[in-house]
From TrEMBL:
Xref: Gene3D superfamilies: FAD/NAD(P)-binding domain
Residues covered by the MnmG N-terminal domain: 4-181
Full protein name: MnmG N-terminal domain-containing protein
Species: Kibdelosporangium phytohabitans
Keywords: FAD, Flavoprotein
Pfam families documented for this protein: GIDA
C-alpha cells in the first residue's frame, strides 16, 4: 500500500481520501485554510470559507455520487441521514402529464440525498477523520512538487518544508496551480480547453416555517425552470432549509440588482412557480444573497506523470446548473482508487492508466455541457437583445428539447432522468435512434406549455424597482 498526499481538503479531497483509505492506503490531506473545522451542521453552514466560494451556493447531489457513497462508503451515507438529510426517489416526481408511471426495479437507483453543500461536506469530513489511516492537516499550503528521476515524490510546502509521498493527488479545485507546479518541475502539464458557461448565479438560503411545501416540487430535489432569459431553481436542503438560485447572463446588466436582497425577493415573487416559498409565514431568509460568476466549462486533460494525479474541479468544471461536479469528482476518485489496485507500482503504466480513465470519464460530460450552454446562452442573448429566440435546426436534440419531450413520453423521461442523474452517459440520450424518434414524435404536435416564469419585461421591472 502507498502513502498518499492529497492537496486540498474540501469536498472532493475528502471524498478521494475516503476512497483511497478504504483501499488500505495511508492518506494525509494538506489543506491550506487554517480556519477551525466546524463540527455541527449550523456551524458548517455559517463558516467563512474564502477559498471555497461555491460552498455558499445551492447544490443538488446527483444519483451517481449518492449511490457511490451508499455502495462504497455507507458510513458517510448514514452520517448524512443522521445529520438531517433526506432521500428522494425521482420516480415519485414524474411529470403529471405522463399520468401513472409504473415503477421499474432500476428506478430505485434514481435517488438523491437532499443536503446543503455545507452539510454534505461536514459528513465527509467527520467520516474521513474517523478513519485511522487519514490525517487532516490544516493550515498547510502546497507551493510545488518534489521530483526524483521524472517521478513526483512529494510536495513543497509554504515555509520551505517538504513532504514526501508515494503518490500526490491534486484536489485544489478550479484555481489549481498544477500546471505551474508541473512545468516548474520539468514535467508535462495538462492541456486545457475552456469556454465560459455564460451564467452568473445569485443564491439565497431560507428556513422553511410552513408545515408543508408551499409550492410544487417538479424536480425531486426541488422546483425550477429555465425560461428564455433566466433560470430560477429551488433546492430543498437538510433540516427544513432550502435555497433559491437565479442564473442570468453575466452581462445582463438589467438584472444585476438581484444581488440586492429586496430585488431578489421581488424576483422570486415574480416567478409564479416559486413565489409561494417566500410568501409571509412560509419561510425566513438565513443568508444574504451570494453571487458567483466567472464560471467555465473547463477540461484539463492530464499528460502521463508518474506519481501525480488530479481529481475534482482541478481537472474538470461544468456549468453548475447540471449539478455534476461532486458526482464526477467522486466517480473519478473511486476509479483512481480501483486503478491503483490494478497498477500498484508508481510508473508509466499507472500514469497512462490514469490519463485514459480521466478522459473516458470526463470528456463526454464536458462536451455535453459546452453544447447545451451554447444553445441556452444564444436563446438568452436573443431575448435580452429583444430578438426572437433562436431555435436549434430541425432534428437536433438538445437538453431543453429532451426535457420538453420527457413530459410526454415515459421512456424519454426515464432516459433524461438517468442522464441528469449521471447513471447513463449523454450519448444514450442524444445518439440513441429510438429515443430520438420518440422525442420527435412526442413534440410533433408542438412543445408542451411552459412552466410559469416571469417575462423579460416583468422581471427587469421588479428588479429595477426593488434595487
Ligand atoms: C455556483 C456553483 C454551484 C454548484 N452546484 C453544484 C451542484 O448542484 N452539484 C454538484 O455536484 N456540484 C456543484 N457545483 C460544483 C462543485 O461545487 C465542485 O465540483 C466542488 O466544489 C469541487 O470540489 P473540489 O474539492 O474539487 O474543490 P474545492 O471545493 O474548490 O476545494 C479546493 C480546496 O483546496 C484547497 N487548496 C487550494 N489550493 C491549495 C494549496 N496550494 N494547498 C493546500 N490546499 C489548497 C482550498 O482551500 C479548498 O479547500 C457547483 C459549483 C458552483 C460554482
Amino acid at each position: 500500500m502507498s502513502t498518499v498526499t492529497i492537496i486540498g481538503g474540501s469536498v472532493l479531497g475528502l471524498g478521494a481520501a475516503i476512497a483511497l483509505a478504504d483501499k488500505g492506503h495511508q492518506v494525509e490531506i494538506l489543506e491550506r485554510s487554517a480556519d477551525p473545522q466546524p463540527s455541527t451542521v449550523d456551524d458548517a453552514f455559517t463558516a467563512k470559507r474564502p477559498t471555497v466560494p461555491q460552498g455558499v451556493q445551492s447544490h443538488a447531489f446527483a444519483s451517481l455520487g449518492c449511490n457511490l457513497l451508499r455502495d462504497r462508503a455507507k458510513d458517510v451515507h448514514d452520517e448524512l441521514l443522521a445529520s438531517g438529510c433526506t432521500e428522494v426517489q425521482l420516480a415519485d416526481y414524474t411529470p403529471p402529464t405522463l399520468g401513472k408511471v409504473e415503477p421499474r426495479p432500476e428506478d430505485k437507483d434514481l435517488r438523491m440525498v437532499i443536503a446543503r453543500r455545507s452539510t454534505f461536506e461536514l459528513a465527509l469530513r467527520k467520516r474521513a477523520q474517523a478513519r485511522p489511516n487519514i490525517r487532516f492537516s490544516a493550515g498547510r499550503t502546497v507551493r510545488g512538487l518534489v521530483t526524483e528521476n521524472g517521478k513526483v515524490t512529494g510536495v513543497r510546502l509554504e515555509g520551505g518544508y517538504t513532504h514526501p509521498s508515494d503518490i500526490v493527488i491534486d484536489a485544489t479545485g478550479r484555481r489549481s496551480a498544477a500546471e505551474t507546479w508541473l512545468t516548474d518541475a520539468g514535467l508535462p502539464a495538462p492541456t486545457t480547453q475552456s469556454e465560459s458557461c455564460k451564467i452568473t448565479y445569485y443564491t439565497r438560503f431560507y428556513k422553511l416555517t410552513a408545515a408543508a411545501p408551499p409550492g410544487p416540487i417538479n424536480r425531486g430535489f426541488g422546483a425550477g425552470g429555465l425560461w428564455d432569459h433566466y433560470t430560477a431553481v429551488l433546492f430543498l436542503g437538510d433540516n427544513k432549509t432550502f435555497s433559491i438560485s437565479f442564473g442570468i447572463l453575466p452581462d445582463d446588466t438589467a438584472l444585476k440588482g438581484l444581488r440586492n436582497e429586496e430585488a431578489f425577493t421581488a424576483a422570486v415573487r415574480a416567478t409564479p412557480l416559486l413565489a409561494g416559498w417566500v410568501a409571509p409565514g412560509n419561510s425566513e431568509p438565513i443568508s444574504p444573497v451570494h453571487a458567483m460568476g466567472s464560471l467555465d466549462n473547463s477540461l484539463r486533460l492530464p499528460q502521463p506523470v508518474q506519481g501525480f494525479f488530479g481529481i475534482g474541479d482541478s481537472v474538470c468544471t461544468t456549468n453548475p446548473s447540471y449539478g455534476r461536479g461532486v458526482s464526477l469528482g467522486l466517480q473519478h476518485a473511486y476509479l483512481l482508487a480501483d486503478m491503483l489496485d490494478e497498477h500498484p507500482e508508481v510508473g508509466p503504466k499507472q500514469a497512462q492508466a490514469y490519463v485514459e480513465l480521466t478522459e473516458r470519464l470526463l470528456r463526454p460530460w464536458w462536451e455535453e455541457a459546452i453544447i447545451n450552454d451554447r444553445g441556452r446562452a444564444a436563446m438568452w442573448e436573443a431575448t435580452v437583445a429583444g430578438q426572437p429566440p433562436q431555435r436549434p435546426p430541425a432534428g437536433v436534440v438538445n437538453f431543453g428539447i429532451a426535457v420538453a419531450a420527457s413530459t410526454k413520453d415515459e421512456e424519454v423521461w426515464r432516459r433524461v432522468a438517468n442522464v441528469m442523474m449521471m447513471l447513463k452517459t449523454p450519448d444514450t440520450l442524444y445518439q440513441d435512434p429510438e429515443i430520438k424518434a420518440r422525442i420527435g414524435k412526442a413534440l410533433a404536435g408542438g412543445p408542451p406549455p411552459q412552466l410559469p416564469g416571469a417575462s423579460r419585461a416583468d422581471l427587469v421591472d421588479v428588479v429595477a424597482k426593488a434595487s
